[in-house]
């Protein structure tokens, strides 16, 4: 009797452990920068957008034809959902992609073409024949949303183009910084395509117009992470990133996406190698 009870307790403990493993996000994704937008998710840390679509087989159709038709319906549903998700992507503190789509037919065509180029990464067939299809869209990169929207009518509006003053000195003995992490936790910051960094006097330190989006390997203007340790693991920052703490967020009529650095942090930022800025080797740590 006692042995049986111990056996049952062991099975229960094993089941609980299995449940925790199976339901826990892979690769520490619970600490990742995932934002739910409509029927999709934006992974701001890795620069990817995921959208799911569903399709059911028509009545009276079975076999391979039913699966094919259900898959086509799921793909069309995923594309419709993707457009909704993209329209909800934050460009800056007061603007979303949908604002530019409404103002420009050209931008609308670009966004529609972008959706059509989505990559199918998962297809699941449920017991009733319904197909669940997941597509992936790049937030950054040469074919990503950030680069596609990199046009004057957008970037000039969200990132004023005036020169920033830098004071870079080639290092002597110390190894040069290969990137910069700005800790902005506790400031209510939201992720965006074109965030900006200012000094305490309002001078622009970092913006989309300063980044070389045409370079090979470009991802996004800024990567986002939930902790400094997670940010350090981002390949874009290299082996020796500088860590700074933001002084405040820039007050905005909408959501806050831009940062202000204090005196010392701004001084250190200005001494970064200009290549760090051009390469977009920048990460924000936010809540």
Going by helix content, strand content and strand pairing, the class is alpha/beta
Mean pLDDT: 82
Helix run count: 9
The H/E string reads HEEEHHHEEHHEEEEHEEEHHE
Principal-axes shape call: elongated
Strand percentage, roughly? 15-25%
Largest sheet: 5 strands, antiparallel
Proportion of helical residues: 25-40%
The oligomerization state is: single chain
Low-confidence segments, given as residue ranges, are 10-31
* Rg computed from alpha carbons, rounded to a whole number of angstroms: 23 Å
Q: Say how many strands there are.
A: 13
* Major sheet strand order: 1-2-3-5-4
Number of structural domains: 2
The separation of the N and C termini measures: 51 Å
Give an account of the 3D structure.
- The protein is α/β, with parallel strands linked by helices and 287 residues long.
- The protein has two domains: 29-148, no CATH class; 159-285, no CATH class.
- Helix content is 33%, strand content 20%.
- The protein has nine helices and 13 strands.
- It has helices at residues 2-23, 63-87, 97-103, 105-116, 145-148, 152-158, 228-232, 263-270, 274-278, and strands at residues 34-37, 40-43, 48-55, 119-125, 131-138, 179-183, 197-198, 204-206, 223-225, 241-245, 248-249, 259-260, 282-285.
- Strands 1-2-3-5-4 form a five-stranded antiparallel β-sheet.
- A hairpin with a 4-residue loop joins strand 2 and strand 3.
- Helix 2 packs antiparallel against helix 4 and helix 3 crosses helix 4.
- The longest helix has 25 residues, at 63-87.
């Amino acid at each position: 009797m006692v042995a049986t009870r111990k056996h049952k307790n062991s099975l229960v403990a094993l089941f609980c452990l299995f449940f925790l493993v199976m339901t826990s996000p892979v690769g520490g994704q619970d600490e990742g920068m995932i934002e739910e937008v409509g029927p999709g998710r934006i992974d701001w840390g890795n620069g990817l957008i995921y959208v799911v679509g569903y399709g059911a087989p028509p009545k009276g159709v079975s076999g391979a034809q039913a699966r094919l038709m259900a898959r086509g319906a799921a793909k069309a549903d995923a594309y419709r959902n993707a457009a909704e998700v993209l329209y909800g992507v934050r460009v800056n503190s007061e603007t979303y992609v949908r604002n530019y789509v409404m103002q420009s037919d050209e931008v609308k065509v670009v966004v529609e073409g972008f959706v059509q180029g989505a990559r199918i990464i998962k297809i699941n067939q449920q017991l009733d024949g319904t197909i669940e299809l997941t597509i992936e869209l790049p937030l950054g990169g040469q074919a990503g949303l950030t680069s596609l929207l990199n046009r004057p009518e957008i970037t000039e509006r969200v990132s004023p183009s005036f020169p920033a003053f830098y004071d870079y000195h080639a290092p002597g003995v110390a190894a040069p910084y290969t990137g910069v992490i700005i800790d902005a936790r506790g400031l209510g910051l939201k992720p965006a395509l074109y965030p900006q960094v200012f000094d305490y006097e309002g001078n622009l330190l970092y913006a989309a117009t300063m980044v070389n989006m045409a370079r090979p390997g470009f991802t996004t203007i800024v990567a986002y992470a939930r902790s400094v340790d997670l940010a350090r693991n981002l390949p874009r920052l290299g082996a020796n990133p500088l860590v700074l703490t933001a002084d405040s967020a820039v007050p905005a009529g909408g959501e806050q996406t831009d940062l202000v650095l204090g005196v010392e942090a701004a001084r250190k930022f200005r001494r970064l190698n200009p290549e760090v800025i051009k390469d977009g080797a920048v990460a924000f740590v936010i809540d």
